[in-house]
Each structure stands twice: as structure tokens, then as C-alpha cells.
Amino acid sequence: MNFLKKIIKNILKKNNLRLEKIVIPREYNLTSPSKDLVSSMTECKGILHVGAHRGSEAPIYEWFGKKAIWIEANPKIFLALKDNLIKYKFQNAYCELMLNEIGKEYEFHISNNDGASSSIFNFGDLVVGENKFWKNREFKMVNSIKIKSNTLDNFIKANDINIENYDHWIVDVQGSEFQFFQGASKSLNYCNSINVEISKGEIYEGGSKWSDVKNFLEKYKFYPEKEPNKAHMDIFFKKIKNK
User: Fold this and answer.
1) Where are the domains of the chain?
2) Do 144 and 108 contact (CB within 8 A), yes or no?
3) CA 84 to mean position of chain CA atoms
4) In this predicted structure, what is the pLDDT of residue 24?
5) Which of 21, 65, 72, 158: CA 20 to 30 A from 2?
6) pLDDT of residue 11
7) CA 85 to chain centre
8) Predicted structure pTM score
9) How far apart, in Å, are the Cα atoms of 42 and each of 39, 47, 91, 160, 169?
10) 9-59 tens-digit pLDDT
11) How are beta strands 46-50 and 91-95 bridged, if at all?
């Protein structure tokens, strides 16, 4: 079967065609984006999206006319991400596990929801315990692979990327937000706004705490639009230099 797939792909490639897998989400996020987030998307030079998964937001970035860098840790999902970005000339993908150390090997746990919740951490009590945040969903880790980490600062330098051109960040790194930002301390100086997924409770066992993420970003003059009112949600940060 795999041999047949390769033959079909080669035939399509020679004719500038490709197969595209359509992944239908099981649920929708109906939360409207804030005015500040929309404004940042409009005014930014470009977007850095860490925790890319399959790149479902790519058409939005294209609509806004923004170039984008996508970073995904899972090698298998990364291949699908690259395929999905073929049609977007100014969007590029990289396979990296972005943390606060260079070259450290981690056990990367793969989740059962198409790998969307994969993490260096196992699920915590708010996912698999009695007081689950998602009452009607059954999440679990179904596999694990070994991946070596990198830092954003080292990645930017090694790939000769001008990070000033990517001044709006989307950070969706499944419990390792604090570690990611620690490894991005130099690059943060060129960022103007961040939309980051955070957890107040233990979504991931031993994962980043909201207070740690908030306190760290405030050192770089990033302030949250609001305090989180849920155990797990996106929070928008804006750089305010004179505060």
C-alpha cells in the first residue's frame, strides 16, 4: 500500500498536482478574537507560529498578507504541515522542539487527538482525573518518540532569520510555555505581541504555570489583555514599553 502511494504521489508531482488530506475538527472554537489581537495581526510585519500542528491558520495569514514561520515538533505531523503550506509562497515550516536547552533529548508524548495535544509532559488531573476540564472528551497519550530540543534564539541564529520581520507570535506548546520563552529571551526583544495558550490548573502534569509565564513576560514589558477566567485558554499579550 505504501509503495502504491509513492507511485501515485510521484505521478501527481510530475503534473504539479497533489492529494490533500481533509481533517474535520471534532469541535469548534467559537470565541471571537479581541480587537487588540486583530489589530496586531493587521499591523505586524510577519507571524511566528510555534506549535503549528497542520497549519490550519495558514489561509488566515495569507488573507492578512503576512509571511509566516511555522514550527512543529512532531516529525510525522510536520510532513503534513509542509504539504499544507505548499500553496503559500511566504510561509515556511521547520521541525523543532523549542524549549530552553540546546540538544537535550526528551520523551515526546503523542496524543490521541491527531497529535494536537502532544507534549513533553503527560496529561494532568484536569484532563484524566475526576474533575476533567473537557467533560465529554477522552484524551490520552498513545505513543512517544525521542526528540532533541532547541531554543528559539539558537534556531534564529542558525537559520539566519531576521526575527524583526516576525513580530507577532502564536505560542501553542502544550504545557512548555515557560521553557519556550526562557529559550527565546533575545528574540523577545523584537516581538510586539503574543497570543499564547495557558493553563491555570494541571492540564499537563508538571507543565508551565500561568503565574510563571505572566511574570516572565512582564520582565520584557509584555502585559496580558486580561486575566484568564478558565483553566485553559488563549491569552493575548501586548508589549507596552512605557508601562
Assistant:
1) 34-239
2) yes
3) 16
4) 47
5) 72
6) 61
7) 15
8) 0.87
9) 5, 11, 16, 25, 13
10) 666 566 655 555 545 444 545 456 778 888 888 999 999 999 999 999 999
11) unpaired
| Three cell numbers written together for 160 | 539566519
pLDDT tier at 214, thresholds 50, 70, 90: very high
The single residue listed with the C-alpha cell 530552553 is 100
Write out the DSSP string of the chain.
-HHHHHHHHHHHHHTT---------SS---PPPPHHHHHHHHH-SEEEEES-TT-TTHHHHHHTT-EEEEEE--HHHHHHHHHHTTT-TTEEEEE-EESSSSS-EEEEEEETTTTTT-BSS-B-HHHHSTT-SSTT----EEEEEEEEEE-HHHHHHHTT--GGG--EEEE--TT-HHHHHHTTTTGGGG--EEEEEEESS-SBTT---HHHHHHHHHTTTEEESS---SSEEEEEEEE-TT-
Cell of 172: 501553542
CATH T-level fold of 34-239: Rossmann fold (3.40.50)
Query: Grid coordinates representing 13?
Result: 508531482
Decide: 100 and 179 in contact? Cβ < 8 Å.
yes
The answer to whether 144 and 75 have CB atoms below 8 angstroms apart is no
Minimum mean pLDDT range among 97-101, 112-116, 131-135: 131-135
* pLDDT tens-digit map of 123-139: 999 999 888 888 888 99
